[in-house]
Amino acid sequence: MASGPKVRSKGKRKPTKRPHSKKSDAFRIEDNKIIRQKKICPKCGAGVYLAQHVNRESCGKCGYTQFKKA
Ligand SMILES: [Zn+2]
Q: Tens-of-pLDDT digits for all 70 residues of the chain?
């Protein structure tokens, strides 16, 4: 094992700020009907949405994964 000081990579760190949109894209209202854009995790319940993937939907909180039917 080398006993020298740890070399840290130089370089400016770019702040990874994401623009916070105040508008919720979880659902939208159309013709007085609430159309859900995202699916709610059946394990975590309301407020936790499943991440949309190409062939599956997964919950980032509990790890629940639901495969889409082709
Ligand atoms: Zn969950």
A: 667 777 777 777 777 777 766 666 666 788 888 776 678 899 999 889 899 889 999 999 999 999 988 7
Which residues 6+ apart lie within 8 Å of 46 measured at CB?
A: 40
Side-chain-side CA neighbours of residue 24 (13 Å): 11
Q: How far is the CA of 52 from the centre of ligand 1 (A)?
A: 13
In the chain, domain spans:
27-67
Confidence (pTM)? 0.47
